[in-house]
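Appendix B. Raw example, untouched.
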Amino acid sequence: MEDYRAMHEYYQKNYAKLKKSMNGYLKLVSAELQQASGKDYSELLEEIWDFYDKNLLEHFPYIGGDDVSGTGNLTGAYYFVAMGEVLKNYGVSLDETGHLMVLSYERTFLRIPGFARKLAGKMFNSPKMLNKMFQKKDKQNAANAEKNPGSFETKAMIPPEEGYAFSYHNLVCPLANFAKEHGYMEYMPYLCNLDYVMFGVLGAPLYREQTCASGGEYCDFKLKSGAPVLSYWPPVFKQGDGYQ
């Protein structure tokens, strides 16, 4: 059993749950992980969890726990960072790690039944519904940030930015802040690219021109009705169209 003295009690309480969740994502690319590393998946998973446990968990800020969706964004994103740090020992490049992230996330969302993905896609193409939903989310995030500084803060843009049916700004990103503080910024463009995976699988045409991680004042999430869904591999930030 690890020494939890430096770890926030929320992460202590959810220690086993977090390890199970990591496996849930990584087992979807277990064959690719074995091929890339030359190791059995179960052994590699233990290495990745060991890195996550010893180098990340005790440093995570508390941003609201189970009461806010952003906690899962933080803990889940860094499963992939831990994966990348371990794979470096086996000669796997950052871009190869980024591709594994995409495959895992894509396969995660493709497991959602088709009818449910279709319903989600309709929701993301309904500006009126999104405005109502995200205004509520803005208030919840603001209240949470008062109690837990450094948490996600968002702002629905009403009216939306010109040329778009819906837009909102992510004003504070704990993922980027953690990366800056602990030296994992190289992973952030690939983690940001996962938004395109989720939106893409759900059929929502996301277009984003800046992120907190790339030096922007905020991350802009903009949906364009009737536009094509952007391809997410190669990662959007490498496609030369100015999207992040």
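End of appendix B.
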